[in-house]
Amino acid sequence: MKRAGIAILLCLSLCGCSWRDAGDLSPVTAGAITRDNGAYLLTAELAVPNPDSAVPQSITVTGAADSIAQAIDNAGAGRDAQLYWSHARVLLLGTDILRSGMRETIRALTVSSEVRPSVRLCAVKNAQADTVLTTCASVSGDPPGFALGDSIELAVKQSQAPDMPLYRVLDRVESDGIDPVLPAVSIEGEQAVLDGAALFSGDVLCGWLDKAQTGVLCLLMQTGDRAAVYDTSTRYPLTGIDPVVRADASAFTVTITASLSCEDRTQAEQAAEALRVQCVQVIRTLQETGCDALGFGRTWAEQHSSSEIDWRTAPVTVRVTLRGTQSAEGGSR
């Protein structure tokens, strides 16, 4: 908790506060939201002053209500303090919300003046969302929610997790254009870990990707400034990634170019073909689940407004060109 404490302590100092005199402020480092019989259950991970140390301690509080705003108020009602949400790093959403449609929850969070639009959203699978904050162990002294924020930050830069802050998710569920994809979180042992991605059709959960598939999708979405392709057990770092999607007469063509660090042309060819096959598999999963994370549906509608062929059944051709020590192209079959 030391690094988390220093960061939050700095935020308080910038607004003229310190732990000793913060008084009515309880900074929130992460939150979790589920629904039970129509009511919102909100759990907040707090950094609170520790009388025996300059480093704050972490606790969780919970509030339930029919609205997000009231649940936030109720979560802080048991403390002589106001919950301070401006520096929350992640919000974990339970599958009960995701399966029934998250539009109402996203709208409510956006309207709330408590939650900043840039907080990242995550989907929790195979566990209750609140248990990530209440039962998982700390990581190097940081509470699980705060540590998860670190993991997501790094994973986004490496194209291993989608970057889905609240404002972007709202835009996607309201625009009927490109569907959102949330980082997935699960519990392994006593640790909260990133575990692939949650796919959505509109605002409704429609499927999951594993870690490897998520990396490929993030590459296609240009999430980070670098990525990697795996050929069996070999990892090839990629930079300068440029995917282009086009809708032709009766099919999609996806062209990917990138720079690759490899030993020779043979390795470049193998990596290009491995990435081509992986891209085809991920795109087929998007089509089968109806998750338009790459904007295929919108592109198809613009090009084929009168076509009877649905984007979910249209053929897809993927071409990969990797610029390494020598260039190689993995064409489509």
TrEMBL record:
Residues 24-187 form the Spore germination protein N-terminal domain. GO terms for cellular component: membrane. Residues 195-321 form the Spore germination GerAC-like C-terminal domain. It is found in: Membrane. Residues 1-22 form the signal peptide. Its main location: membrane. It is a lipid-anchor. Pfam families: Spore_GerAC, Spore_GerAC_N. Keywords: Germination, Lipoprotein, Membrane, Palmitate, Signal. One of its GO terms (biological process) is spore germination. Belongs to the GerABKC lipoprotein family. This is Uncharacterized protein.
